[in-house]
Amino acid sequence: MKVSVIIPVYNTASYLGECIDSVLEQTIHDLEVICVNDGSTDNSINIMSKYAQDDSRVKIFSLAQNHGLPFARNYGLDIAQGEYISFLDSDDMFADKHALEILYTQSKKQELDLLMFDGLFMYDEDDISLKKCDSTRKIALSNKYYGIYDGENAFKMFMENGDFIPSVCFSLFKREFLINKHLIFNDKMTNHEDLLFMFQVFLDCKRMKHLSKKFYIYRRHQNSSTTEVVTPKWLLSIGICYLEAMKFVSMRDCPIDLLAVLTNYFDDIKQKFQVVYVKLIKMGIDANKLLEYFSVHEQLKLRLLLYSRHILMLEEYQEIISHRGVIIYGAGKIGREVSSLLEIYGIHDYYIAETRTSESTKYINGKEVLSLNELKYLAPDSIVLLAATWTHHADMIKEMHQLGFNNYINMCC
Fold it and tell me: Fewer CB atoms < 10 Å away: N or C end of the chain?
């Protein structure tokens, strides 16, 4: 068996036919289509069954309940018999009937562990909830890579050039490589599983190549994973990604030039973690409490990602929005950072104050900096965000109390 195409299926009856057709129409005939029915409740199983009756290459494996994409992919990997593995989401399709033949031939001839390629985004024209734009746009690396590389060097190049696209669907994998390196998806994750898996694949593979061909069509619609609404599970998944990637790196002897690139990778995860955290807080969800899912040691590592004034705790956010007046007290570097922080959280109605204003008018983010004395009329129902270094706190708090400001949050880490 040359290629195993693994298709996890969950309630995608509207698109499943196109998906399977794009595989069966491939010019390479020696393949198997492994459809893992992940607890679908729509007509997906009937569609798969019809294809399986008509073509013995289509094989159906049904799970009693929905376990999620990583679990379904692992299930397919355990069953697969092909020399090479392709992952296809059940609402997507191959863009070229020669795709798998070209990918297999090159992988076999050049003894590749990983062969990556490009694709297209396709927006569902029947879904009015998505913004209308070009019906397709490319998902391709911005640079050309013609050589065969070991994974660490490729990861370094891709990261430095902004070309690291962690999608397993744009890749053909040598099954023996995945087995020997014990590479599977983390089934505790509900999203961002490719970010971790492809990171591990890159660092472990010895021969990889990128082919500048748009072989994959990635469909976007209201129910696709790319348009999914943020949930608490997102934060947990990104946390798992961070911890598992850290563990993976700790067991390796990484060259110095790779360490700087790894820092960028982890910074990207940190940013994703913070963005989801902020969104959950704005939704009224205590994202900080969600971290109790992890061990105490793991919680400490993840809380360090939040030890920054790019983050408000839920109690702080709720306290701020509950007051009529919000005043940033301090117009220096910390004051500017706090102003930007409030904007991120969607808090736009606030004031900026200094103990004494200079003769020339000063603005931060379009807001005039006033003296705290000018804002004392807000004191009965206001919250002051203390935005200065510790050395100034005593004098500033004294000034606040003299003017009747009693509620404040220290914004200096």
Answer: C
The DSSP output letter for 165 is -
pLDDT at residue 316, as a whole number: 86
What pLDDT score does 128 carry? 38
Percentage helix, strand, coil for the chain under 3-state DSSP, each rounded to 5: 45, 20, 35
Which residue, among 145, 236, 226, has the nearest Cα to 188 in the 3D structure?
Answer: 236
Closest CA to 315 of 287, 291, 276: 287
Q: What is the pLDDT of residue 307?
A: 64
Mean pLDDT by runs of 10 across the 413 residues of the chain is 98 96 98 98 97 98 96 98 98 97 98 95 59 47 86 93 92 98 96 96 97 92 62 94 94 84 91 90 89 88 72 84 93 88 88 76 87 92 91 90 92 71
CA distance 18 to 103: 21
Contact between 230 and 276 (Cβ < 8 Å): yes
pLDDT at 320: 92
- For tokens 């708090």, the residue is 397
> What b-and-e string marks burial along 261-277, b requiring 16 or more CB atoms within 10 Å of the CB?
bbeebeeebbebbbbbb
Q: Could you say which DSSP state residue 149 is in?
A: B
Question: What whole-number distance in Å separates Cα of residue 318 and Cα of residue 381?
Answer: 14
3-state secondary structure 242-265: HHHHHHHHHCCCCCHHHHHHHHHH
Helix, coil or strand: residue 399: helix
Q: Phi, psi (5° rounding) for residue 300?
A: -60, -45
178 C-beta neighbours (distance < 10 Å), count: 21
Report strand pairing: 136-139 vs 114-123. antiparallel
Residues 150 and 205 sit within 8 Å (Cβ to Cβ)? yes
CA 396 distance to own-chain centroid: 41
Provide φ and ψ at 225, rounded to 5°: -65, -25
What is the C-alpha to C-alpha distance for residues 339 and 350, in angstroms, rounded to an integer? 9
